[in-house]
Structure formats: C-alpha cells, structure tokens
Design goal:
Length: 346
C-alpha cells in the first residue's frame, strides 16, 4: 500500500464520500489534515467541476487566511535544502508554530517526480504532528504549479498553519514565482570561495532577504565564514531594497543544527520591521494584484489553446506562417477573432 506523507491521513475518514463545499471548509477551518489534503487535490485536479469547487472552498477560506509568515527557500540541489527545512521546521514547531511545507518544482514536469515527493526526505518532519508536507504537483506548467501553490497557501493558513515554507530548486524561473507569493526569501549557498555565487543567477541573489551559507561544520567552518564575508561584500553592490531591509548573511549547519535559531530570529525581525513600516502589507497587496492578472493571463491562455476551433486551425496557420505565406501578426489576429467570436458553449 502506498504510504501517506501525513501519518494521520485517512484515519477517521471514508475516502470515497464526496464532500460538500461546506464540509470541506468546516474541515479545513477545524484543522483536519485529511480534508485539507483532499481540498488541495481538488486544486490540483484538471477537472473543471473540481476547479469550480476548489475556487468556492478558497473563497470561503480566504477571510481566515493571511495570518502566517510565508518563507521561500531556494538553493541548488545538494546545498542541503531538505536537511535545512527539517532543522528549521523542527525548531519552528518546537516554538509552538504549525508548519506547512510546499514545493514548486519545475523539474517535476519532466520527471513526474517531485523534490518533495520522496518520503525519505524530511523523514522526521513527515512524522511531526505540527508539520504538514505537500509535494509539488507533477506534470504541469510552471505557471500552473505556481497558481496551485499560491492557492494551497490560502488553505493551509485557514487550517491554522502559521508558518509556510515554499521550497524550490535554484536553477530556473521558479524563484520568481516563489518570490511572488512569499514574504521572505531565503537563499541557501555552499561554503567555498571561488565558486562565486555557484551558478545562482544574479537576479536570485538580488531577491534574497537572507543568504545562509550552509554546511558550516567540520573543516568547512573557516571556508563558510570566508564565504559569508564575501557574500556580505557582494550584497553591498546591489541597490537598496524597497523593503528598506538590508539583506543578511549568516552561516549554519543544517546537519548539526547550528545557526538555525539565528536564522529564525532574523526572519522574525524582518517581519517586525516591515510590519512597522507597513511594507509587509503593501507587498502582500502587490502580490494579490499580481495574481489577479497572472490568473487572467493563464486562464485566457488555457481557454484559447483548448478551444475546439483554434485546435482545428492552428496547425495549418502555423505552417502558413513558418512558410512565409502568412504574416504572424495577421495570423494571430485571425485566430483571436475566431476565439472571441465563438459561441459561449464552445
Ligand atoms: P537538497 O538537494 O538541497 O535538498 O540537499 P539535501 O538536504 O538532500 O542534502 C544534500 C547532502 O548534503 C546530504 O548528503 C546531506 O546530508 C548533506 N548536508 C545537508 N546539510 C548539511 C550540513 O549542514 N552539513 C554537512 N556537512 N552536510 C550537509
């Protein structure tokens, strides 16, 4: 039997019973993890009736959401993200917080796997009653995964999770997506001078509110300290942040669980400072606006390309454009006209 990521899942619940929207909402607000998981599955579903129901649940949960610290964590594979999330997560839950760990994983599109899909990652958090771990949905576009993660955050908050960690691999555009849904962005790097910024793009470093040099243990301690001062100097070259916050650089060992407390304190300080300056709230408002337009864009895109008439015509038109028989602009206009003049039920 396939094991559940959440140990309590499926205990008191008959899986087949279809729940009403009210039952979902009641379950989520009551902190029922099984119902929360099922609601997230609705969010992830490609069926339009599931989508509709998910939207109703999200709308009902929204007034109860928002009261959390949303933290994005990124870093190249092997930097120690899952070990770090275990260490930080354990620390956070000991401090009476409830933690949800989500992931945005562009590689899962190809492998149909997930950076959080492997249960052996974060083994101790998986059995922690105050932690909820949800793998990234597989087989979807980055935009799709990002929307679903954003919606999942709302449900998790409504269920009482007051710290949300969104993990991503530091190799692509997914950081920008994560950045658009979190309050605080943490970049994990490895010690070792010379491998400057380790293939992490400048834009990602620029987004970071905190750089943590991980694996500062054993014979790497000195190297980690060196890296810390190098990154600190490098950060001075970036323009000041709109938040007014000066990005911090710290060292830690996720394995030996050192430096973790300092990192958590830094996150809490950030929250305090930016709440006082009201940047915290204005950033969330900006993000909500961003998601409004992003959702419209994605929905239109999806509706356009799944439309019957468009599907029938697009291949021929593409060939005509490629062979120079038709201009791309005229062709696009023709297709868009076809789309906008369609009967509503098509
Ligand atoms: P991820 O791919 O970024 O999630 O990295 P993992 O958490 O899977 O860690 C990759 C490897 O680095 C594993 O062998 C970990 O045991 C090791 N590792 C993670 N954190 C530390 C650390 O703080 N110190 C040391 N020495 N090793 C670590």
């Amino acid at each position: 039997m396939k094991e559940s990521i959440n140990p309590n899942a499926g205990q008191h619940f008959k899986r087949r019973k279809t729940l009403t929207t009210e039952e979902y909402v009641k379950g989520i607000l009551g902190g029922n993890r099984v119902i929360l998981s099922r609601a997230i599955t609705l969010i992830e579903s490609t069926r339009s009736d599931h989508y509709q129901k998910a939207q109703e649940i999200i709308a009902a949960c929204l007034p109860h959401a928002g009261k959390s610290v949303r933290i994005g964590i990124t870093g190249t594979p092997g930097v120690g993200k899952s070990t770090f999330i275990e260490a930080l997560g354990t620390h956070i839950t000991q401090a009476t917080h409830q933690l949800a760990v989500l992931a945005i994983d562009p590689t899962s599109q190809m492998t149909r796997g997930s950076i959080l899909g492997d249960k052996t990652r974060m083994a101790s958090l998986s059995s922690n009653e105050k932690a909820f771990i949800r793998p990234s949905p597989a087989g979807d576009s980055l935009g799709g995964v990002a929307r679903k993660t954003r919606e999942t955050i709302i449900l998790c908050e409504a269920a009482g999770y007051d710290v949300i960690l969104v993990e991503t691999v530091g190799v692509g555009q997914s950081e920008t997506a994560v950045h658009s849904m979190v309050d605080f962005f943490l970049l994990l790097l490895l010690p070792g001078a010379g491998d400057e910024l380790q293939g992490i793009k400048r834009g990602i470093v620029e987004m970071a509110d905190l750089i943590a040099v991980n694996k500062a243990d054993g014979d790497k301690i000195k190297l980690a300290k060196q890296a810390k001062s190098e990154y600190r100097n490098a950060l001075h070259l970036y323009p000041p942040k709109a938040s007014g916050w000066t990005p911090k650089v710290l060292t830690c060992s996720a394995l030996e669980k050192t430096g973790i407390q300092d990192i958590w304190m830094t996150i809490l300080n950030y929250k305090k400072e930016t709440e006082q300056s009201s940047f915290w709230m204005s950033k969330r408002q900006e993000q909500a606006k961003f998601w409004l337009y992003e959702t419209i864009k994605n929905q239109l895109h999806q509706q356009f390309f799944s439309h019957k008439l468009i599907k029938n015509k697009i291949e021929n038109i593409e060939t005509a454009v490629v062979n120079g028989r038709q201009s791309p602009f005229k062709a696009a206009e023709e297709l868009l006209q076809l789309f906008t003049s369609r009967p509503l039920d098509q």
